[in-house]
Amino acid sequence: MTPNRPNSPYSLTRFLIEEERAGHIRPDLRLLIEVVTRACKRISIEVGKGALGGVLGDAGTPGQASINVQGEAQKKLDVIANDVLMEANAWGGHLAGLASEEMDHSVPIQDLSPDGWPAGNYLLLFDPLDGSSNIDVNISVGTIFSVLRCPEGVTKPADEHYLQPGTEQLVAGYCTYGPNTTLVLTIGHGTHAFTLDREIGSFTLTTRGMRIPEETQEFAVNMSNQRHWQPPMQAYVADLLAGKTGPRGKDFNMRWVASMVADVHRLLTRGGIFSYPLDAKCEAKGGKLRLMYEANPMAMLVEQAGGAASTGRQRMLEVTPTGLHQRVPVFLGSRNEVEAAVRYHHDFD
Ligand code: AHG
Ligand code: MN
Ligand code: MN
Ligand code: MN
């Protein structure tokens, strides 16, 4: 046997077992990651069916899409992905409860288990399908997830038990369903990418220790909201657009997929800043993106890759959550660029 020959595939399973041996992860948490990523493979298959699988379009009745707790029209794949993650995690014994962007409240595992499935030590949060407005046009979407510890002595966790700052996350990850399916994962020891080998059905380590360049000349934002932004964001982006002869002294390029997973995957691969600032449309809700399902997992992944993540005024991972579906402004990516965006916010305080 030649276990380390150059082209020998290094599977997610092997990676996790070696992390366990290094004392970075407990066995029950390792098995939980295996369950979640297995569910992602299943979602990848459903997404890949497209029109052939009847999975495109709105959920609900014809002409009347169902509306989720976020006030958004649900796509069929939002519901399918949520069901896949629920079903996969219900009986594993690793979770005390789970919470999703698509569900009004968190669900204790005990409530899913009339036959008494055992409750485990962890809480799972997920955005089952991110970027769902892109599903019908065959652009990358993804799943975002994070794991918290269930507080000591709690066997039937309620929403309040999930309200822990992002610094408490034990695991964060996302899976992108694009030209290929890639899992990006952190257990607090770097951020690593695994590509799904469709022929053997297994995630294979393809980048160990992703690093985000500190400097960038690329930004991602929905420019159509420009007129609704607050003064710090107006000033920041005006200076980016001013280019070489402006105060920033360099030209910037812009890219916006409108799937956070895809936009973040790009900056984890080659640098950049992603932002979803406060604007007049989302101000009353506190922002557009969700702290628990989107901002915090991405913030941990980005920090573990040497980048930074902020609300514009505070480190993202230190925000004390007040609600399961809480929204926040988001700036994350290349460290120096996030710090620049934060300076514009402080200048207006
Ligand atoms: P979701 O599909 O999970 O509701 O999230 C969509 C989010 C995020 O993926 C993306 O960055 C943003 O909404 C897109 O917003 P715009 O509609 O302003 O482009
Ligand atoms: Mn949504
Ligand atoms: Mn999302
Ligand atoms: Mn979603």
TrEMBL record:
Binding site for Mg(2+) 1: E101, D127, L129
Gene: fbp
EC number: 3.1.3.11
Top-rank taxon: Bacteria
Name under which the protein is recorded: Fructose-1,6-bisphosphatase class 1
Main location, first listed in the record: cytoplasm
InterPro entries found in the cross-reference section: FBPase_C_dom (IPR044015), FBPase_class-1 (IPR000146), FBPase_N (IPR033391), FBPtase (IPR028343)
Pathway assignment: Carbohydrate biosynthesis
Sequence positions that bind substrate: D130, G131, S132, S133, N222, K288
